[in-house]
Amino acid sequence: MAEVIRMPKMSDTMEEGVIASWLVKEGDKIKSGDILAEVETDKATMELESYEDGTLLHIGVKEKESVPVDGVIAIIGDEGEDISELLKEAKSGGSSNGADKKEEKQEAPEEEVEEVDASDVNATLITMPKMSDTMTEGTIASWLKKEGDQVSAGDILAEVETDKATMELEAYEDGTLLYIGVKEGNAVEVDGVIAVIGEKGADYEKLLKSHKAKQQSGSDAGEKKETKPAPSEEKAEKKESTTDAKVSSTTEGGRVKASPLAKKMAEEKGYDIRKIKGSGDNGRIVKKDVEEYTPATEVVQQAAEEKGTSFNIPQVVGEESYEEVSVSQMRKTIGKRLSESKFTAPHFYITMEINMDKAIEARKSMNEFSPVKISFNDLVIKAVAAALRQHPKVNSSWLGDKIRYNKHIHIGVAVAVDEGLLVPVVRFADNKSLSHISAEVKQLAEKAHSKKLQPSDWEGNTFTISNLGMFGVEEFTAIINPPDACILAVGGIKETAVVKNGQLVPGNVMKVTLSSDHRVVDGALGAAFLQTLKGLLENPVRILV
């Protein structure tokens, strides 16, 4: 009796898996315990083991394709066994839109046609990779190659803007860039077709038709998603033209060939990037070129101020105008994740005042000996880590049917960047010295601003701190950063009158507000945590004990 092999749930957060590689092929004899394939999950690449003996009669997912948990991967049975009915049942059982039998019958021949086309056409589809754990789509910031160019494995094809950073899309094939399917400024979903690389003159259109036919037979919803970006092409082209006006030069294609970091540095320094000579591949401008560039002195003219002497109200003639800019990947993700947090997690807030007189004195003394300058934010991170060690239930996560109490302490530190907000993570903060925390936070902040953060830098937080004190904010509330159960909003230190020993004296006060998920942390527990934090910051020597 043939058995259907489905995608197992290999981690608590896994929703789908990608077949990294098949270690067997259709027709192979399989024994229980044999490794069928390598599966790439959201956490790691793992081996898919067979629990059946028999012949591999059907492979339902190609390499590099994704399949949801419980989706059909393969069928194992007796050699020559008829599995047509089993295939129909598997497809109807895995369908979420109630597809009828006619649709099922259409899928099989289309899959066969695609297999024939894939073998006939000497070319490979390049699809949008998933570059972060929260990424659902990417925007092509710029193409570094054009149709007809020769491409080698390792060449950078394009710069892709994700929800976290701007990253480089690398080619893994040698050949000619036959087709570019996404214009600069346009977004494409993960696994969507970006380009085709193959042998010069290959019939890539046949490959695209085969891929499109498979997507159309998959689900009507998928087809709508594919056609959705089309109406926005005009807006994307308008946005592209305005962007080009700022960074365009006489380089090929009318665009500046520069790395994201070089563009960012030039913008921050106020340089006209069109005047910088590139030393990278094909004249590409890199970080070194911006650092070594010396701009010419420009004459700044100041307009004379005129004072009006008439009381007559002048007639003002103006034109209403506005600009619409497509939402960045980072903003989309911030909106999605924080909306889910705010509307699914029942927030409650506790605010407490902390006297920072001794913390100010302690920081001054520490900085006389510390190899790096310690900030008040560093003191807060260290104190929070110490307080979490005493209140481990605050260092937790809501997982729906269970609560995870983390025994390790990874503190996320919110960093504001031009496009939104990033939360790099200080791992094992309770085991690190203040100078270690200070150096690491500075390094992570620099990487965040230059879009150099890697997934390992922003994943795994168990508690988050958001500090707006440096902007003059005295008090605010923050939205919980999933999967954490709590986030601490830190205000600025304000000099004010305080009562000491019955006397009104000047003092320095800082307000902190704890936002908690009431499903996990109760009011008494949150208050106890803040009380411990208050004691540590009001007597900082306790942090070091």
UniProtKB/TrEMBL annotation:
Its cofactor is (R)-lipoate. It is an enzyme of class 2 (transferase). Binds 2 lipoyl cofactors covalently. Pfam families: 2-oxoacid_dh (PF00198), Biotin_lipoyl (PF00364), E3_binding (PF02817). Keywords: Acyltransferase, Lipoyl, Pyruvate, Transferase. Residues 90-117, 209-263 are annotated as: Disordered. PROSITE patterns: BIOTINYL_LIPOYL, LIPOYL, PSBD. Residues 2-77, 123-198 form the Lipoyl-binding domain. It comes from the Bacteria. It catalyses: N(6)-[(R)-dihydrolipoyl]-L-lysyl-[protein] + acetyl-CoA = N(6)-[(R)-S(8)-acetyldihydrolipoyl]-L-lysyl-[protein] + CoA. GO terms for molecular function: dihydrolipoyllysine-residue acetyltransferase activity. Belongs to the 2-oxoacid dehydrogenase family. Forms a 24-polypeptide structural core with octahedral symmetry. NCBIfam families: PDHac_trf_mito (TIGR01349). This is Acetyltransferase component of pyruvate dehydrogenase complex. It comes from Fulvivirga kasyanovii. The lineage of its organism: Bacteria, Pseudomonadati, Bacteroidota, Cytophagia, Cytophagales.
